[in-house]
């Protein structure tokens, strides 16, 4: 078996014969006999079922090894050890685009994986395109982490298109992928089309004010997203205002992190207006957004009216904001206001609000 060195974004050249061989391998091994319905025998003790289970793992491993040989990459031993575990953790493995191609061929024949962690593997756009086909067809994967892979607009387009046609997906992490204005269009299409997606992490990207103007209307129309992290981006000016207006119209989002964006006072004022209308948001973090006393006052006025927010994080606090917080305490005794200077907690809890469960995340 030959081994090639891979750069983080270097696309390895491959011949048509190799591609055909990989496709033939997938065709030969991507089948597993299914137990007949209506059997009176307990599946846990059925020898035939156990044999099928073992055959499934053999098929998966054989297909992966052959695919690695075709694409001239070293097999990831942790994948071979995974067996039927629900989580496949391949973070920091340096897979590169070629490794992604090898993995994609076997993921379609793997019915066990529910959470796929590929953080920091240098997949780039070409690796994302290779994985997109497997993600679009998988009926088991509901949680995927593709953070820190330099996906860019090309990768974002491929992944968003794949997830749009996969109703199984519930949690997606795309942090630190150099996503800019162009990628925002694909993300907006995903928000509009996917009603089953519950959690989305877009932190540590370069989504700017134009991206905010694209994502804001999509957020307003989204029906399903419960948790959104868009911290450490560049939502400012008109983009911040458009995004806040999207929050105002949204009726599903419970947790929102927009910290470290530079919303400024105009953006803070728009968020304050959104809080007057929004009656579902429970947690909001907008610390480090260049908000002065004027913006903090606008936020406080929105908090005064809002009936559902339980946790609010803001870095700027002054006398006026303290006075507003005291008045809000009377209306919302369960609200927790966190600041850089201190943390104020009001012990009386609000009535519990139902929050759908999300797939468990791996420890970071």
From TrEMBL:
Region called Disordered, residue ranges: 1-25, 36-55
A Pfam family the protein falls into: LRR_6
InterPro entries attached to this UniProt entry: Leu-rich_rpt (IPR001611), LRR-containing (IPR052394), LRR_dom_sf (IPR032675)
TM region(s), chain numbering: none
Gene3D superfamilies xrefs: Ribonuclease Inhibitor (3.80.10.10)
Residue ranges, compositional bias (Acidic residues): 36-49
Name this polypeptide is given: Leucine-rich repeat-containing protein 74B isoform X7
Lineage: Eukaryota, Metazoa, Chordata, Craniata, Vertebrata
């Amino acid at each position: 078996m030959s081994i090639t060195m891979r750069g983080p974004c270097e696309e390895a050249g491959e011949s048509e014969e190799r591609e055909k061989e990989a496709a033939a391998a997938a065709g030969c091994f991507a089948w597993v006999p299914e137990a007949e319905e209506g059997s009176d025998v307990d599946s846990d003790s059925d020898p035939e079922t156990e044999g099928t289970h073992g055959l499934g793992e053999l098929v998966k491993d054989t297909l992966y090894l052959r695919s690695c040989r075709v694409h001239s990459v070293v097999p990831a031993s942790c994948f071979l050890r995974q067996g039927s575990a629900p989580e496949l953790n391949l973070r920091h493995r340096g897979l590169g685009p070629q490794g992604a191609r090898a993995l994609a061929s076997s993921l379609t024949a793997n019915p066990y994986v529910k959470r796929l962690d590929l953080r920091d593997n240098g997949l780039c756009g070409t690796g994302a395109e290779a994985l997109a086909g497997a993600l679009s067809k998988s009926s088991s994967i509901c949680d995927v982490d593709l953070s820190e892979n330099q996906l860019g607009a090309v990768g974002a387009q491929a992944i968003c298109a794949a997830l749009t046609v996969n109703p199984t997906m519930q949690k997606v992490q795309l942090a630190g992928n150099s996503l800019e204005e162009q990628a925002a269009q694909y993300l907006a299409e995903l928000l509009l089309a996917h009603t089953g997606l519950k959690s989305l992490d877009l932190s540590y990207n370069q989504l700017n004010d134009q991206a905010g103007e694209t994502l804001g209307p999509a957020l307003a129309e989204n029906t399903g997203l419960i948790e959104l992290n868009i911290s450490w981006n560049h939502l400012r000016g008109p983009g911040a205002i458009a995004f806040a207006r999207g929050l105002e119209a949204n009726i599903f989002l419970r947790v929102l992190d927009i910290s470290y964006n530079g919303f400024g006072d105009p953006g803070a004022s728009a968020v304050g207006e959104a809080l007057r209308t929004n009656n579902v948001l429970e947690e909001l973090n907008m610390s480090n957004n260049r908000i002065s006393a004027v913006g903090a006052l606008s936020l406080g006025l929105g908090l005064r009216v809002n009936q559902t927010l339980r946790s609010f994080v803001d870095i700027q606090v002054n006398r006026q904001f303290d006075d507003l917080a005291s008045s809000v305490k009377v209306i919302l005794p369960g609200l927790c206001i966190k600041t850089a200077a201190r943390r104020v907690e009001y012990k009386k809890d609000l009535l519990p609000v139902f929050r759908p469960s999300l797939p468990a995340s791996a420890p970071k």
